[in-house]
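Duplicate of #3305? Posting structure anyway:
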């Protein structure tokens, strides 16, 4: 969603800003660090005291994307307990992007993350039927005990399951949190531009945004 905003600073020249609003889902199993990732991304801090989300927690992140664009992210942190999957269709409605999180030291949470992604794709999509951009986060990379075989398989799993990219992250040590967020916003902006172009295209032909080359080994497009 894009809304033009007229900003006149202290009687100076008028500048027309574009203000974009994106709903972003944060999904994955309980205890994988979703709440800590949101806290780090929005408030730039980490709290050792763990508090499991119940239902949905909400947060707002405001980004000055470029000199003429402000991006507002509504982050919907959905509880990881199984019972909340039954309500996911309601939670997913209107989403423009998703962050899917798993614990890098627990292979079962990766399997669950793939199930969350399948659930997402079955219940929400962009206009034209395209899946919403989703980034996979291999969280808790500051901890010992990572499964190296699992990590080496992530590029293939990412491509096979339609993720736009993946990152090793640590909410505790602030590793790749902002980078993953910026990458997802870029993907949503590309989709938003493509959708806007389609709205103004009279021939009704649907054109997907051009794919980009990966910028690091942790990105798959």
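Output from current build:
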């Amino acid at each position: 969603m894009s809304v033009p905003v007229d900003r006149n600073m202290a009687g100076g020249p008028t500048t027309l800003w574009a203000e974009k609003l994106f709903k972003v889902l944060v999904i994955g199993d309980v205890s994988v660090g979703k709440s800590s990732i949101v806290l780090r991304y929005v408030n730039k801090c980490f709290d050792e005291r763990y508090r499991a989300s119940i239902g949905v927690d909400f947060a707002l992140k405001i980004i000055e994307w470029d000199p003429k664009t402000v991006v507002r992210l509504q982050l919907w942190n959905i509880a990881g307990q199984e019972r909340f999957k039954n309500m996911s269709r309601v939670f997913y409605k209107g989403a423009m992007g998703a962050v899917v999180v798993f614990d890098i030291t627990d292979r079962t949470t990766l399997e669950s993350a793939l199930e969350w992604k399948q659930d997402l794709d079955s219940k929400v999509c962009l206009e034209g039927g395209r899946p919403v951009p989703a980034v996979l986060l291999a969280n808790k990379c500051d901890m010992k005990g990572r499964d190296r075989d699992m990590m080496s398989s992530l590029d293939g799993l990412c491509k096979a399951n339609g993720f736009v990219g993946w990152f090793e992250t640590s909410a505790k040590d602030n590793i790749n949190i902002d980078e993953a967020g910026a990458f997802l916003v870029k993907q949503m902006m590309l989709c938003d531009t493509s959708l806007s172009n389609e709205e103004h295209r009279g021939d009704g032909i649907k054109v997907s945004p051009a794919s980009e080359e990966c910028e690091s080994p942790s990105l798959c497009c």
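Confirmed duplicate; merging threads. DSSP finds six helices and seven strands in the chain. The longest helix spans residues 177-199.
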